[in-house]
Structures are given as C-alpha cells and as structure tokens.
C-alpha cells in the first residue's frame, strides 16, 4: 500500500451521495421513506455510513441528491448533519430534485442527479469528485481510493468488491487486466469474468466512483446531449469511459476500515427484508463482523437525547432480561425477555412477552404475552397483547409480509387489519 501524502487529497474533494432510491425490495419499510433513510443498527440510518465514511476520510464538502419520499431523509440530515461550517471551507448541501434544468424534469438517472447540479459543484472549485451510493452498509477510507486514482492517471476509478465468481451474476462486473485496468464492464453477466490473480472471484461494482471534477463535468455534459442515453452512471457514463478512456478498479479490501475485531471486509446491500434483518441481527453476535463500537471510525448520526435503557421486574416468568441483544436508549424492558434481538430507541416491551431474532424500530409498544420470533417491526407499531408470530408460517403469511426464509415484516396497517 502506498504511503499517504502529507496533504490529504480528501480535503480537495467533494462527496456526492446519490440518495434518491426507492428501495422497493424493502416493501412496506419504504412506503413512507427512501431506502437511505431506513433505520439501521439501533440508532442510525443507512445513509449515515456513506456520510460518516466521507467525514472520517477527511472530506469536508458533501452533497446529497434526494428524490423519492425524501422528507424523513431530509429531516434526519437537518438534525444530524448540520455541523458543517462554511468559514472552515465546509459545506453540506441537500439537493432535492427541484426541476432546476427544466420545469418538467426530475432526476432521470444517477448521472442526471449530478448533472442538474453542475453549477453548485463548480462554485466549490474542488479538484476531485467522489460519487457514492447512499444505501449500503460498510466502513471505507476514501483517501486510499483518491490516491490510487491520482497515481494511476485514471479517468475514473471504480470501487469494487471481490465476490465468488458465480455470486456476481447480479452485479455490474469489471473485467480487468493484471494491473486492474478495466477492459470491459458487464452488467449482470451469466458467466462473470474472473479476476486474473483470483480466478474463482470476480470484481463487482460498489457504485463508488472517483473522478477529476473537470473530467466528470465534461462527461456529464456530453451524456446530457445524447438523446439515446438513460442518464445513468452504470449504464452510460462508465461503459463510455471504459471504451474510450482509462478506467481502473479499486479493490475494497485496500481501503476497508477494520478494527482489531473485524477480520474480513464488510459490505452489505441491505436491500431486501432478509438482508436487512440479517445485517441488524449480525450486530448482536459476541464479535460482530461489523464493529460499530470502533471509536476511531465513528458512525455519525442524529444523537437524540434519551434516558438510558431500563430493565425491570425480577419474578419467575416476568423478568426484564436480554441476552445477545442490542438495546438502545429510552427502551423499557418491563418483565419481557429478549434473545438475539436489536431494539431501536423508545421501545416498550411489556410483561411476559418474549422476543427472539427481533429487529424492532423506534417507538414500538409490545403488549403483554406477545411471542415474536424472526420479525422486523416498523416504526411506531403497537403490538397487541398475546400476538404470536413465528410459530405458524401459513397464518403469518396471511397476516404479515413473510419472506421465503421466514422473516415477518410487521407494520401498523397490518396490525389494524387483524381480527383478534
């Protein structure tokens, strides 16, 4: 690994986060919020990972493009990310699709979401642009990627995951040479091209791109003038550069931030109910694959003022207890028992209830004698007394959103329809 420069390149870079995604595979979890605004890890939102990575990497200019059901996302960023100061050459811009180019045109694709704000980018005069997806969970120091971009003389540097070759069929895959120069970009290939030094693996795109700013803006203007373009980085901008310029792959393992407890690079697209549940439940392990307790690389978020969590009652069958669980502030575990569960802020679990493999979003109230296993419960849901979930698959599927692996998503409208 090359030695870091004395003057970090990150200080002359802008992070531009694409956070307009619907996240439709998360079903009812994104009925009222964009995927980047979905809660994660007890107190954060998914977008906090990309934003924290940028901040911790030394980037002090950040723009976030929003579009789909953006209110909760914008509110979260206004509350939790309002500490940037212009007098320190810092900026944090929330950039909704505001029809700035045309009165009838919203963001038509990921590239268009940057193109429509070219004038704002140019005003900052930054040397480099780091384009990020706002809907993945990972820890990464973008400074290493910036350094590789400059040292290689690339037109674009693309963040890539090493994944088992036949698991890459659902990704955009980079076909690279021995020096990680990208020869071809293949979208969801049936037979993914192998990595030369690791033939059982392929390089899948993470949706992270580094450009010199001038090169990017020229590319966006050229793309905007093409009537046949879909205005998308993965479909239009990147394939054009691979064919006509120099594109280089950056391997995530080189810049993944790991504490002493993290052995493998951790990156998750929590875009399905199953993946979302699993990534949250992973945090309850004795030694989680993702260390959110690493103070050297904090995950910044809205630090809500809450009282501590509380566990009460110590009678047989009515004991406030938790094993292998994450319990956030303002939770009261009142004669309930938790196992391998993750509770967000403000949850109330009442007497004789039992939770196992439960991901409970903020301000949920769980009635007495409820038995909940392998569930995701949306924000503010009131679980009625005696509700049993996780024992009868057919009944669960009729009442709730049940995945093939048996995870049940529960929302208030689903509860309201119950005849109990």
Folded structure, characterized:
The protein has 420 residues and is of the alpha/beta class. It has 2 domains: 9-284, Spore Coat Polysaccharide Biosynthesis Protein SpsA, Chain A (Alpha-Beta Complex); 310-416, 3 Solenoid (UDP N-Acetylglucosamine Acyltransferase, domain 1). The chain has helices spanning 47-57, 71-80, 110-115, 118-124, 142-152, 213-224, 233-244, 273-282, 393-399, 412-416, and strands at residues 13-18, 39-40, 44-45, 61-66, 91-96, 128-133, 137-138, 156-164, 172-176, 182-187, 201-212, 247-251, 267-268, 310-312, 314-315, 318-319, 321-323, 326-327, 332-334, 337-339, 342-343, 348-349, 354-360, 365-366, 371-377, 382-383, 388-389, 401-402, 408-410. Strands 1, 4, 5, 6, 8, 9, 10, 11 and 12 form a 9-stranded mixed beta sheet that branches. Strands 17, 18, 20, 21, 23, 25, 27, 28 and 29 form a 9-stranded mixed beta sheet that branches. A hairpin with a 2-residue loop joins strand 15 and strand 16. Residues 16-284 form the Nucleotidyl transferase domain. Belongs to the bacterial/plant glucose-1-phosphate adenylyltransferase family. It comes from Rhizobium vallis. It catalyses: alpha-D-glucose 1-phosphate + ATP + H(+) = ADP-alpha-D-glucose + diphosphate.
């Amino acid at each position: 690994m090359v030695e870091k420069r004395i003057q970090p390149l990150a200080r002359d870079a802008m992070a531009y986060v694409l956070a307009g995604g619907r996240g439709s595979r998360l079903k009812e979890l994104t009925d009222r919020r964009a995927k980047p605004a979905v809660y994660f890890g007890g107190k954060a939102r998914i977008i906090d990972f990309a934003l924290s990575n940028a901040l911790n990497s030394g980037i002090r200019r950040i723009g976030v493009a929003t579009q789909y059901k953006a209110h909760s996302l914008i509110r979260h960023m206004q509350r939790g990310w309002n500490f940037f100061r212009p007098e320190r050459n810092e900026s944090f811009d929330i950039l909704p699709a505001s029809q700035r180019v045309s009165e009838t045109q919203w963001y038509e694709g990921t590239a268009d979401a940057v193109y429509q704000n070219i004038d704002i980018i140019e005003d900052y005069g930054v040397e480099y642009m780091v384009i990020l997806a706002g809907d993945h969970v990972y820890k990464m120091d973008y400074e290493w990627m910036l350094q590789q971009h400059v040292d290689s003389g690339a037109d674009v540097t693309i963040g890539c995951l090493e994944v088992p070759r036949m698991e890459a069929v659902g990704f955009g895959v980079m076909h690279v040479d021995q020096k990680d120069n990208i020869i071809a970009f293949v979208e969801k290939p049936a037979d993914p091209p192998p990595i030369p030094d690791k033939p059982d693996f392929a390089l899948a795109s993470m949706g992270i791109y580094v450009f010199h700013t001038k090169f990017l803006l020229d590319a966006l203007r050229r793309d905007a003038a093409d009537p046949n373009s879909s205005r998308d980085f993965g479909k239009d901008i990147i394939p054009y550069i691979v064919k006509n310029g120099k594109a280089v792959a950056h391997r995530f393992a080189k810049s993944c931030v790991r504490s002493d407890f993290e052995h493998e690079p951790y990156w998750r697209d929590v875009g399905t109910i199953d993946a979302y549940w699993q990534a949250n439940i992973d945090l309850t392990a004795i030694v989680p694959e993702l260390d959110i307790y690493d103070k050297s690389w904090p995950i910044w978020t809205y630090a809500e003022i809450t009282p501590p969590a509380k566990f009460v009652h110590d009678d047989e069958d009515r004991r406030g207890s938790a094993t292998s669980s994450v319990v956030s502030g303002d939770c009261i575990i009142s004669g309930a028992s938790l196992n391998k569960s993750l509770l967000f802020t403000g949850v109330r679990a009442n007497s004789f209830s039992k939770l196992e493999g439960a991901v409970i979003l903020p301000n949920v109230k769980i009635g007495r004698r409820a038995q909940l296993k392998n569930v995701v419960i949306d924000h503010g849901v009131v679980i009625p007394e005696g509700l049993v979930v996780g024992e009868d698959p057919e009944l669960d599927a009729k009442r709730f959103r049940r995945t093939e692996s048996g995870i049940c998503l529960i929302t208030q409208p689903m509860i309201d329809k119950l005849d109990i």
